Amino acid sequence: MTKGVKIVTIGGGSSYTPELMEGFIKRYEELPIREIWLVDIEEGQEKLNIVGEMAQRMWDASPYDVKVHLTLDRREALKDADFVTTQFRVGLLDARVKDERVPLSYGMAGQETNGAGGIFKALRTIPVILNIVEDMKELCPNAWLINFTNPSGMVTDAIIRYGGWEKVIGLCNVPVMAMMTESKLIEKDPKELIYSFAGLNHFHWHRVQDLAGNDVTGQIIDKMYDEENGMPANIHGVPFFKEQLKQMNLIPCGYHRYYYRSEEMLNHMLEEYNDPNVGTRAQQVKQTEAELFELYKDPTLSEKPEQLAKRGGAYYSDAACETIASIYANKNTPIVVSTKNDGAVPDLDPEDVVEVTAYIGAAGARPIAFGSLEPAQKGWLQLMKNMELCVEEAAVTGDYGILLQAFIINPLIPSGETAIHVLHELLLAHKNHLPQFADKIQELEAAGVEVKDEVVRSLQ
Amino acid sequence: MTKGVKIVTIGGGSSYTPELMEGFIKRYEELPIREIWLVDIEEGQEKLNIVGEMAQRMWDASPYDVKVHLTLDRREALKDADFVTTQFRVGLLDARVKDERVPLSYGMAGQETNGAGGIFKALRTIPVILNIVEDMKELCPNAWLINFTNPSGMVTDAIIRYGGWEKVIGLCNVPVMAMMTESKLIEKDPKELIYSFAGLNHFHWHRVQDLAGNDVTGQIIDKMYDEENGMPANIHGVPFFKEQLKQMNLIPCGYHRYYYRSEEMLNHMLEEYNDPNVGTRAQQVKQTEAELFELYKDPTLSEKPEQLAKRGGAYYSDAACETIASIYANKNTPIVVSTKNDGAVPDLDPEDVVEVTAYIGAAGARPIAFGSLEPAQKGWLQLMKNMELCVEEAAVTGDYGILLQAFIINPLIPSGETAIHVLHELLLAHKNHLPQFADKIQELEAAGVEVKDEVVRSLQ
Amino acid sequence: MTKGVKIVTIGGGSSYTPELMEGFIKRYEELPIREIWLVDIEEGQEKLNIVGEMAQRMWDASPYDVKVHLTLDRREALKDADFVTTQFRVGLLDARVKDERVPLSYGMAGQETNGAGGIFKALRTIPVILNIVEDMKELCPNAWLINFTNPSGMVTDAIIRYGGWEKVIGLCNVPVMAMMTESKLIEKDPKELIYSFAGLNHFHWHRVQDLAGNDVTGQIIDKMYDEENGMPANIHGVPFFKEQLKQMNLIPCGYHRYYYRSEEMLNHMLEEYNDPNVGTRAQQVKQTEAELFELYKDPTLSEKPEQLAKRGGAYYSDAACETIASIYANKNTPIVVSTKNDGAVPDLDPEDVVEVTAYIGAAGARPIAFGSLEPAQKGWLQLMKNMELCVEEAAVTGDYGILLQAFIINPLIPSGETAIHVLHELLLAHKNHLPQFADKIQELEAAGVEVKDEVVRSLQ
Amino acid sequence: MTKGVKIVTIGGGSSYTPELMEGFIKRYEELPIREIWLVDIEEGQEKLNIVGEMAQRMWDASPYDVKVHLTLDRREALKDADFVTTQFRVGLLDARVKDERVPLSYGMAGQETNGAGGIFKALRTIPVILNIVEDMKELCPNAWLINFTNPSGMVTDAIIRYGGWEKVIGLCNVPVMAMMTESKLIEKDPKELIYSFAGLNHFHWHRVQDLAGNDVTGQIIDKMYDEENGMPANIHGVPFFKEQLKQMNLIPCGYHRYYYRSEEMLNHMLEEYNDPNVGTRAQQVKQTEAELFELYKDPTLSEKPEQLAKRGGAYYSDAACETIASIYANKNTPIVVSTKNDGAVPDLDPEDVVEVTAYIGAAGARPIAFGSLEPAQKGWLQLMKNMELCVEEAAVTGDYGILLQAFIINPLIPSGETAIHVLHELLLAHKNHLPQFADKIQELEAAGVEVKDEVVRSLQ
């Protein structure tokens, strides 16, 4: 890397890219970037151009001389890359609209990461990421893959398990958000607290200690019920049951609301779904994105606009930049990442990908051993990991039986006939991005199965 | 045991007792019983008398001279017992009515074994059984405890884990039922098939082999969809999704319908709940029981009446008698029982109680190692066992937080505010049998929480 | 199997064959054999003829009409076999002489099963047995493979792990011997005791219960020190330390003397080695075998001769015949066998082959879950299994580094330069039977390494 | 800790103390010490005075105002301590002489950490450290215990397991030594390499990566055979077998020579034992210590003398000071420590103490998950940990049977009659420090057992 670092961002046309640029600019002194390649697909050409020009403007306004390349040729971009980041979305935001609306049209949570929607996002994404990995083996075999494509845990797991690629780190902004808001609750600087996370992406818990080594988790929990607790913009703010948190003496992640308060979360999503002026989260995000791209078009804008925070991925790119800088400069920064377990969460197999606090340095992620969880957390964690394994297997094999199993055991999907309808309609809705299920989809079409939700139909 | 065997049945006033007697009479040559003690509590005195006299008539009509003792003095009965069987129901059938109706009044499955109802049955039963174990340590330290009180798995686990009593075997009739019906499906005698069960009580799977050693599980699954498949009388007959069963190549137990077809099972229960002419399963059973006791009163009746089969526990007592005879005569009979895992189900802790095929002989249950389960089964099994552990801990400690956790992670209970209402009303409905939760109950009463279901209110 | 069972014995020219015949004749009513094929290699032709004629005479003297076929054509024999038994010895008894004498020439135990000798026996045998398995996949894919070729545990493990053949059961006579002698010690019939074995071949422990379910292990241990304790003919009779046995409350197997009394065992072997009138065990066995074959030549002999008991494998063939009959007639007989763990010994991986009490029937071996062992047993067991895994890998890959590791971690081989000499001389001594190590052997020869023991040199 | 840190060193009269002082002085700016208490027992009064005065002189020569208190009153010292370090030796160096000479007098390795000697060191030390922990619970319940008393792994494990004290970190200088010497081998600064250690104290392996994330373990191994490899002063320099190291692609610790080259290590120790001009390591150390104390007496000396390096514990105290500073200042320094596993070494129980690379900060040690080891390492590691567990149990209970088991399974002790002699003589030799074995010792004395080694007899 003597000539400086080459960074490739797949899904470079994303609205997140300016935040990523900001993060790199901020860290240039420790992470001397030579060139950045933003890669996208044909359907994303226009966005790529808009955001790419914005990105170049940001660098031009900085003291650093970095060239941002825009390309639809992934292989050209990957050649000799040092770091590859992935933030693409197979089927774009419309696919997320489908992930959310089809289940909701049957009164069921779509939830884009671990629920029915998340399952389908994984089915669409895993084959594509495995293709990218094959290219990387050939074109940049020493590069690190930094994944923030959701569902980040399953995607990272599949990269190692099925792709055989170990130099990968999965990222998510949820832990960063939690650390920022919780430290405020007890009037501390985040640096004055020691966080230990363990679990899976969007399904983890953490404990907190202060600099005297005392466990202050309970203290934070108490404060969460005193005051207004900051929550991720993309999760509806229903509080956890306090007695549950006190019992576990751990803080769940925001997404645990889908499991610990499923009734209220579902009702909220249905409300938004049923209100044509609101729409599901994906529809709201589409609106925000459109606004963002309008802003990005402004040739005088060379700073990340305020409005990006509304998008819901705050700190995401910051986590990515910090991870890359930590690897490059062997900084040993504690970051919460998806990585091979190796025992850190002893209740899961050492080969499973988990999301844990890890020290990030030149050797990649070194996960901290968290110790066994208590039964209530352990059991559900084991269920979720095994659900993930079913989804990954389905994504790779196109086996309908194992996909059905994933649906049936997923705790956000009530099993039964309705679940089957949702499953079948999602297969149809995403048929262009699920070649591995072509036979089953054909069978469904032959049987006259049809997507019912009008919005989804309009997107086909 | 030179003078013959002394058997004590706690909950002897149960309508099942005649079946138990029939089982003992049938096996008298290998299990020479000297005396039988039927124990009950004051509220059950009348039933005890009716069924006790019936029991004595059955023996009198047999070639064997066995005395049936009736008593309310448990300690007197336990003295020098060889085998103690438990079939009591704390709070009688009315408690089961509450277990079922309170959740259903909120549109939620009550399900008396693993759902909200089953949790409360465990909370009521575990402290009582631990008392019985304390008496046994003193009065009959060499006796075997044969438990068929539900939830049989959790109760058996608590007996070992918290009672420190290892000579216990938990029984259930579900596996026997499965073996009887499935062999018919492929036109075999049950003896021509080799069944291997693994999992938890009311949450297990099995595979089947024929005498050539071939796996015929898939063949049975196919037949289940060809013809009318016999199911336990107490489970509504919605079929499993065939693709799921083919994928796992295992046969789930009947109770898995609550998990694998939760939508349909809930709808069926709600239908019965809402139809005043039907009522929940407990109400139906109450009716059946009343009829049975009318029959038992007939001083000329000295045989188990046909109608008992409708009660839903067919083969239950037969399994119990066969277990006792197998221990006594070291028969090495393969029976599906709840027993300490010891590794038989490697996906759970060796110390956990599991339900597996075991060879029963003088050394008790020797569980057969089943091997690891595939992800879809493994994950859910691990969740359920950990849910059980939370319930047991709540039963023993009276800790509300851990009880709340059990409710939240239980897959039959959608988490949220409604679940809390159900939890609170169940605490109130069962207050006389939950001394460990006295403080919480008082708090709820002070806060004006009330049971809403009229039928349950009428039973208070 | 309608026309009766076809049995194939590989290594049919062994002196054990008459015992095997006796076992089959005794069980003919439950195991109706149609034909027996004794297979051997060219070097064994003469012995095959002698013992084969003897075998036919035994059947002719019985009421049953069974034809004993003798052949050097393994593939012809395997065609449509129902059961294949293996009792061959690659390199014949001379190889065992080398296994024992080379280590002893350096003052180190040779020990033909788990020590240096056993390691080399595995290296020679595993590739051959994997070839046999390949033939079976083609010629008799439904047959059961009953292995008594030593080291039985490693060979059985390799058959499953590397051969992918699950229908295999490994046998050993050590547990039978223990059960016969121990029951006498406390004046019981073996049928009045319940034995539970767990561990590895030649490295297991067992507990014993009586028909009242009481643990009588301690009682037997006490008796072992009162009276003359019967031991296998092939193990020198030094007693275990009583305090050790009382502490574990388990009975080790005879071969544990090599580990628990290694000093005395080594001294005894060295004594025999140094006495030209005695020689190592293999040399003694060669003598016994020669005498046996003289007897077998007698055309009037049609019964197993008394002298066979001296050979050291008493009950071996009986265990094999009983295993085959139990599978054929689904007898559910408890037999101690080497089989896939599946959790029975939770301290080892479910995929490992272990030696445990199992119920043998049409479904093969159903191992009984034994539960976790205490530290002192557990640690050593884990070491031995991992040592076995290194040996198997070396046998299959011919990797010298992993073979060296097996030598260094084997507790019967003191690590250091002398161990390397032993390792190298054994490679040379067995060069004709270790094609996978051809390169290393060539390198050693080029370096002028030579076998020092005169007897071994004379056998080259 | 607003008024500065209070440090208590138990065994403060040790010759190591000046190194400890040097380490604290060097780190004063980040670890502002208020007072240091050196505690010793009456037999150590003279040494305590000598080294204590030397320590005060060192501080006086520094720019910092720190008072060194000398006391025989442990409880006075512990009051309100922030950090307690332990470097005491029950029975002083004479006890180590016995640990080494008794086994060697029977031709067996004494080895003061994991062999027979180490077992006895643990038996003497564990009860004392558990007493200290009881005092700490009362007098300084928030203090950290930094243990460098050997056998550091077993002692640390016992503190957690039997003492119930979680705020403990066990230290050893072996990993530091390895890191210093190995980086030189490949001409790197230690900071340019990333070390990952896993295993047990004096029984661990490590891998090494460079700043490009590449595994350079094999490169270092190659260099170890090119040049003179630096080894700990207290381990004889026989090289490992290169093929073994290449196979494992890990670097064992220096103490692994006792296991991987046991023949040569034993011969070396016997040579020293038999040479009256050399003597065992303990005797050599006694000589070095005497010389050191002569130096310390010099009232003009206020710097750690060069000769201390010969003592064999170089970097020991440095590791301790760095650990304390890292906790105090939350430095997140990667240090190799003995700490609760929590899954870091998945082949051992999460509750076991292991020795691993951990990040040390205000929350104590956060062990890095290493992942599963390969069979050859795994098996032996599991044996050693279980051996440790037997020793700890023996230390706490005084049970002779479990002590015998530890002896028999310890790979450095050939089992048999000679081992029993060694065991018995060691019990006698240490009788004043083994109150828990008083009965057994009395029995041995009554039976006339006597220590044979003259040197040991002279120390009684």
Automatic annotation (TrEMBL), chains A, B, C, D:
Binding of Mn(2+), residues: 172, 202
GO molecular function annotations of the record: hydrolase activity, hydrolyzing O-glycosyl compounds; metal ion binding; oxidoreductase activity, acting on the CH-OH group of donors, NAD or NADP as acceptor
Pfam families: Glyco_hydro_4, Glyco_hydro_4C
Cofactor binding note: Binds 1 NAD(+) per subunit.
Binding residue positions for substrate: 96, 150
Transmembrane segments annotated in the record for this chain: none
Domain Glycosyl hydrolase family 4 C-terminal: 197-413
One Gene Ontology term from the biological process aspect of the record: carbohydrate metabolic process
Keywords: Cobalt, Glycosidase, Hydrolase, Iron, Manganese, Metal-binding, NAD, Nickel
Entry-linked InterPro entries: GlycHydrolase_4_CS, Glyco_hydro_4, Glyco_hydro_4_C, Lactate_DH/Glyco_Ohase_4_C, NAD(P)-bd_dom_sf
Domain of life: Bacteria
Similarity remark: Belongs to the glycosyl hydrolase 4 family.
Name the UniProt record assigns to this protein: 6-phospho-beta-glucosidase
